Prior knowledge:
Elements: H1 13-37, E1 41-46, H2 54-69, E2 73-78, H3 81-90, E3 97-98, E4 101-102, H4 106-128, E5 135-139, E6 146-150, E7 153-155, E8 158-160, E9 166-171, H5 173-181, E10 185-189, E11 191-193, E12 199-201, H6 204-215, E13 219-224, E14 230-233, E15 236-239, E16 242-244, H7 245-253, H8 261-273, E17 278-283, H9 289-295, E18 302-305
Parallel strand pairs: 1-2, 1-13, 2-10, 5-10, 13-17, 16-18
Antiparallel strand pairs: 3-4, 6-9, 7-8, 11-12, 14-15, 17-18
Helix pairs in contact: 3-4, 6-8, 7-8
Amino acid sequence: MAKELIEYYNGTERSIEDIYKNKAQVLLEALPYIKEYSNRIVVVKLGGAIMDDDLSLMKVLDDLILMKYVGMNVIVIHGGGKQITKLMEEKNIKVEFCDGMRVTSKEAIDAVKMVLLGEINSKIVSLLNKHGKLAVGLSGNDANFVNCRKKTYKKDGKDIDLGYVGEIIDINKDFLLNILNNGYIPVIATLGSDKKGNVFNVNADTFASAIASKFEAKKMILLTDVDGIKIAGADGEKLVSKISASGCRKLIEIRDISKGMIPKVNSCIDALLGGVERAHILNGNQEHSILIEIFTDKGIGTMIVKD
């Protein structure tokens, strides 16, 4: 005989009623965005301090899992600059940069592959797969789906040999589409290769922009350690909520955007020119920054839009 189940409210429900109403309101605010992004591609580039903190990284990945389950096709891109530098130092490999680009010798590219594939990529995939069989780890040289050539670079009129640093020629879109259509989240390390089998290191922001452009993604999101584009004023710094591509170029010209923010902003502009609808720069250390940016009216970081 089945045992009867009766549960009673404990009398405190009125005190928490507003909490649940607020949660319901949040869901209703998110509804039009969920409908808008259903079955659309969102490219997320992971970076910054979260890559060194498994707890913070897991919180970001939980957001990506939620995005998948509400119908988005999420593509994850990651580099691993700090970890690569650490391994190179441990192995006594010379660490050298030119205008922010890592000079990548034969020994250095081996270290890059060890970190990106053996450490970071496998960790991200394992954390995502705690929620089920959801993620597949890749690098751009798998099936040569990110075709590269050696990057040429000039400084002060002189050719600079950056070593195994690549620039992307083409991306095999169908290769990634097959993975997405089978219900998986591709997690891609920022390597590419040429037809001779040479493997190249590619800047992570540039890599994300190229992938997002190839798919004409709904959004590209770059996670960093800063809140977005900030402009200094008489009353302190102000965070830019929304800005056009031409507005970004103007701020770069007058040096309100400078240093490490310039390549990130340029990657966003390139993505917009490549057909991406919107690009975002967010602080990955702020809990649920991706969800707040995507599913709320105001957002939390900087959104860059077409002119």
